[in-house]
Amino acid sequence: MNAIGAPVIEAKTVGKTYGVGRAPVRALDGVSFAVPEAAFVSLVGPSGCGKSTLLQIMGGLVPSTEGEVLIDRERVAKPMPGKIAIVFQDATLLPWKTARANVEFPLELQGIGAAERRRRSDDMLNLVGLGDFTERFPHELSGGMKQRVSIARGLAQEPRIILMDEPFGALDEQTRIKMGQELLRIWEATRKTIFLITHSLTEAIYLSDRVLVMSHRPGRIVETLTIDLPRPRTYDMIGGVEFGRARNRIWSLITADEAEGAVEP
Amino acid sequence: MRRNVLVGQLLFAVAFLGLWELASRMCWVDPADLPPVTIVVATLVDLLGNPKFLDECGVTLVRVLVAFAIGAPLAVSIGFLLGEKIHLGEIFNPVIHFILGVPQSIFLPVFILVFGIEFLQKVVFGITHILFVVIVNTVAAVHAVPKPLVLAARSFGASPLQIYLRIYLPAMLPIVVTGLRLGMIFNILGVILAEMYGARTGIGLLLFRWGEEYRTPELMAGIVLISVVTIMLNEIMRIWEHRLGRWQTAMDAR
Lengths: 265, 254
Fold this sequence. Notes:
- The structure holds two protein chains of two kinds.
- By secondary structure, chain A is an alpha/beta fold.
- Chain A is 33% helix and 24% strand.
- In chain A, the strands form two sheets. Chain A has a six-stranded mixed sheet with strand order 6-7-8-3-9-10, with helices on both faces. A four-stranded antiparallel sheet of chain A has the order 2-1-4-5, with helices on one face.
- In chain A, helix 3 (114-127) packs across helix 4 (143-156) and helix 6 packs across helix 7 (241-256).
- The radius of gyration of chain A is 18 Å and the shape is globular.
- Chain B folds into two domains: 1-32; 35-252, Orthogonal Bundle (MetI-like fold), CATH 1.10.3720.10.
- Chain B is built from eleven helices and no strands.
- Chain B has helices at residues 2-25, 37-48, 51-84, 86-100, 108-115, 119-143, 147-155, 160-197, 203-212, 216-244, 246-252.
- The longest helix of chain B is centred in the C-terminal third of the chain and has 38 residues, at 160-197.
- Chain B starts with a helix and ends with a helix.
- Chains A and B meet through strand 6 and helix 2 of A and helix 7, helix 8 and helix 11 of B.
């Protein structure tokens, strides 16, 4: 069980409409929630429900049409590299840079000195288990390894919050489970606030303190589930009664919402 | 394996030159049309020792380099704008593709009317040959910049300038260099063509005259010289291209 602190992320009636004009698309509608400091919160919902849009609004990459997101009570208007790091679905590593240079790249942009960059990239690549692969280029790494580099790159920025947009979506089942366990280990070691978007209910429940369930487009938060499974989480909990109950509840919420998108049970 | 390929290529070159020599010596072809390779090479060595000939080569080289120095940056800038500014691209990209499909040599008489037959006309004709192929390649290069990388860089707090220099530039470079290499080939073609068609100086003019005067040893020597120089230039740029694009070929190979 975690000591859950004050809210570090607050979304207040966030709405987003794309393509104002003849054929506007309502992506998000009145999305409100709070994420406590050091919590692990996941957001699940059918494909195309506006999950990624919400994450990009939270990251300051896209403006919302209505409402606002507060980080540490500060309104998000642009990216906040010191506070928020984003891990994207496809690792988004620069193919012409080594793993180390990729981890150091944001730090370089932010004007952090070479010695400090080196220290952080060493620490973080070791933390994600890639200490022996620092000089490899992305095309020399597997999908899982690339995503580890991407996580190391997020952590090296020493943010308070890490936003993850289906980071394991492109990985095979086995790698995905391992990466989930790895992520929990990293989270326990660093105590960052993690906000994870996933379409895997199992992943969401297994990793999180709370699961936000989003409806089909326009995306709304239809329920917030608190996951009371003890920590550290173990793989066999996935077969347990409590786990199954949570999964059924989310599944019924999503399917009741005439979901057209694919969702993994 | 690699060695075998090299040996094979060398054997082919020797066989080709041998056949050339033999065909001429044995009068399979009229030696007046195709002098033996040994005579051509001897003529070339003579020419390379002739200051007047070297002057003519220098004139052509300067025209080619000036055209490239102006045309390449101009074309890359235009291509960048057309690739990055979607509305500009929508208007002008089809136009450029149309023009690219027209053989530019048909405009040569117009260029002479407008720009005369001196330095300016040769350089302008070279530039127009560079322009369109490099623009098209640069537009493609801009479109090939992975958008998720740009989004990621923005999340790191990168400024627009940092995004252009640190994401766009390296991502575009391999494709742009391919365009520049093709641009250089077309540039040389344009300048020499303009020299052959109407000029007072330049190696193109010499080739044309040697042809008219039926001086085939000189003509062939000139052809060999230009071929060797352009092949070398092309290869140097290809090596550069390959080095820049190593990560890309590695990605494609997967």
